[in-house]
Amino acid sequence: MFRRTTSLLTLVLPALALTAGTLAGLSSQALAAEYVVTMKDAAYSPAAITATLGDTVRFVNDDGETHNVFVPTLGHALDLGKQEAGAEKTLVLRTPGQFEVECVHHLSMTMTITVKP
Amino acid sequence: MKTTTLGGLGAAAIAGLLLAGDVSAGPERVTYPANFETGYTLYNQVDRLDRKRVRSFYVNREADAAAKSDAPLPDGTVLVMADRNAKLDAGGNPVFGADGRLVATGPVTNIFVMEKRAGWGESIPAELRNGDWDYAWFTPDGSLKPDAKYKGCFTCHMSRVERDYTFTYVKRLMDAGR
Ligand SMILES: [Cu+2]
């Protein structure tokens, strides 16, 4: 219910999307949610997320080496490019379904994201 | 034979040969897949959100018909990655389709190819060798990109040794239960 209202606002007023991202940590209920995924010791944490269309995932490389966000799943496939130690990248969840995330450099580094419509 | 001549050289020297365009090992022996858009099977699309680019992935049909995820890819497999620009709005931000995906626009800008032929790997230094694959980077007119570097192709694709050195294709077979 709250979420639906927020998504509508985000659609109508794109400028609000920014605000939504900034405030997400403070008020997870009233605004599109932001999930944080870390990369320490070459592992995505958490290893699985269930989110809603329009939510955001912020990937934080808190490890000492370069990692990456690469999605091979058909219909969801994307690549956010090289992510050096300390760097952050944001992904807006625009397609419902389930997909896998892999690191280009480390095949053992994987996670799953489920996006509810 | 080339392999014996190269035996005594260091990896750097051999990589140098590769980069210099030695015909026996390097991009010149990879055939430009002129008909990939009509004659090959499109099997995936990757949105390069960082570069505002859309990458389309093709495989030659004979190889695709025989390919299985739990076996090495067939001799003669050709994988093509073709780049196009993503459609942008007036502010330079990507426009997303109703499916939430980037929208490709304009002509193909770059064509990356990996081709597998029995014996090809023998002329590649052991620490770079990707099975029997070789790599090439073409411009849209079908010529090799003049300033392309090839060592990185081998080192980066090495992380997918368990998937026959591919990032997208064998994973696609796995996901399709093939
Ligand atoms: Cu990694």
Can you characterise this structure?
The complex is a heterodimer of chains A (117) and B (178). Chain A is of the alpha/beta class and 117 residues long. Helix content of chain A is 18%, strand content 38%. In chain A, the strands form 3 sheets. In chain A, strands 1-3-6 form a 3-stranded mixed sheet, with no helix packed on it. Chain A has a 3-stranded mixed sheet with strand order 2-8-7, with no helix packed on it. A two-stranded antiparallel ribbon of chain A has the order 4-5. The longest helix of chain A has 11 residues, at 2-12. The radius of gyration of chain A is 14 Å and the shape is globular. The longest helix of chain B has 10 residues, at 11-20. Chain B is built from 6 helices and 5 strands. In chain B, strands 1-2-3-4-5 form a 5-stranded antiparallel sheet. The chains are: A alpha/beta (117), B alpha+beta (178). At the A-B interface, β5 of A face β1 and α6 of B. β5 of chain A pairs parallel with β1 of chain B, so a sheet runs across the interface. Copper (II) ion binds at residues 42, 67, 103, 105-106, 109 of chain A.
Quick tags:
heterodimer, A: 117 residues, alpha/beta, Immunoglobulin-like, 2 domains, three-stranded mixed beta sheet, 2 helices, 18% helix, disordered N terminus, B: 178 residues, alpha+beta, five-stranded antiparallel beta sheet, 6 helices, 5 strands, binds copper (II) ion
**Quaternary status of these chains?**
heterodimer
Question: What is the correct CATH architecture of the largest domain in chain A?
Answer: Sandwich
Largest interface in this structure: A-B, 19 and 23 residues
Strand order of the largest sheet of chain A: 1-3-6
How much of the residues of chain A is beta strand, in percent? 35-45%
Helix content of chain B: 10-25%
Q: Would you count the extended β strands of chain B for me?
A: 5
Helix tally of chain B equals 6
Structural class of chain B: alpha+beta
Total beta strands of chain A: 8
Shape of chain A: globular
Radius of gyration of chain A: 14 Å
Counting structural domains of chain A, the number is: 2
Q: What is the global morphology of chain B? A: globular
Profile the largest sheet of chain B.
5 strands, antiparallel
> Which CATH top level class of the largest domain in chain A fits?
Mainly Beta
How many distinct helices of chain A?
Answer: 2
CATH-defined superfamily of the largest domain in chain A: Cupredoxins -  blue copper proteins
Give helix and strand order of chain B, one letter per element, not per position. Answer: HHHEEHEEEHH
Largest sheet of chain A: 3 strands, mixed
